[in-house]
Design a protein that fits this description.
alpha+beta, Alpha-Beta Plaits, 2 domains, seven-stranded antiparallel sheet, four-stranded antiparallel sheet, SRPBCC family protein, START-like_dom_sf, Polyketide_cyclase/dehydratase
Length: 266
């Protein structure tokens, strides 16, 4: 029997309860559209061994013609490897050499499947001055704190972000999966109006444009975040992950602010 925790310790990307089966089916389900041998396609193969999946993902990502490969576990414990290939021939050649242990593979037209860029927006209110919230939201040391247990970083700088800053880091999902290259660039930073925008990519994401602003309210302040995501075929899954991850940052920021005010008044 495969346990979800077993898979999370390897190279399989798991979003588990965050990624609804309905979204997966919408993005990857079967279709009657015929596939030409020479056009880009997506392929999904079902695997039952986490060790086997880790090995296959490593091989796929090094194989010419495979543009992308990720693994997900469904509610039944079966792991699906989702791939983008330049052609049916390239896909078939790989799987003839390596085969599947179990079950099904499906081919679909890549261009017919690719979802449009999606947007996620979150709004949170804080009973603290806007300037205090802004300082926490723009401090990279606090970024580590508010993402602890969800993401782990390597080579992340310290201190406040600034206009034009470029960061090439490595990121690990849950701090357990292998670290992957990730790039972040601060394209807009307006300290006076408390707003910034960063453009990010890596770890399977083609575009992750994150805009954040803080405004004063009668009860304190309001932080608004808008994330524009292009994850190709996996865009609905990345969007679900974004909603979850950014919601988790709110109570952690509250704790940071409460501690900061307590020390200041101390």
């Amino acid at each position: 029997m495969i346990h979800r925790t077993d898979v999370s310790r390897r190279t399989v990307l798991i979003a588990l309860p965050l990624l609804a089966a309905e979204s997966q089916a919408k993005a990857w389900g079967p279709t009657s559209v015929p596939v030409s041998m020479g056009e880009p396609v997506y392929r999904r193969d079902s695997i039952v061994s986490s060790a086997r999946t880790a090995d296959l993902l490593s091989r796929l990502r090094k194989t010419e013609g495979c543009m992308r490969a990720d693994g997900f576990m469904d509610e039944t414990g079966v792991i699906a490897i989702w791939q983008e290939w330049v052609s049916v021939q390239a896909s078939t050649a790989f799987w003839r050499r390596h085969g599947t242990e179990y079950g099904t593979s499906t081919l679909r037209k890549l261009r017919a499947l690719r979802p449009m860029t999606t947007h996620v927006q979150l709004v949170h209110d804080y009973p603290f001055p806007a300037r205090d919230v802004w300082r926490v939201a723009t401090d990279l040391d606090h970024l580590k704190t508010v993402t602890e247990g969800l993401l782990a970083f390597r080579n992340l700088p310290h201190g406040e972000i600034h206009q034009g800053q470029e960061m090439r880091v490595e990121v690990s999902l849950f701090g357990r999966l292998p670290y992957q290259p990730y790039e972040m660039r601060v394209v807009e930073f307006d300290d006076a109006n408390m707003a910034f925008t960063s453009e990010e990519k890596g770890a399977g994401v083609k575009t992750w444009r994150h805009s954040l602003s803080v405004a004063t309210t009668p009860t304190g302040s309001r932080l608004t975040e808008r994330i524009e995501i292009d994850g190709g075929l996996l865009t609905p899954l990345f969007a679900a992950w974004a909603r979850y991850m950014y919601r988790q940052r709110h109570p952690r920021r509250l704790r940071i602010l409460e501690t900061s005010v307590s020390r200041r008044n101390g």
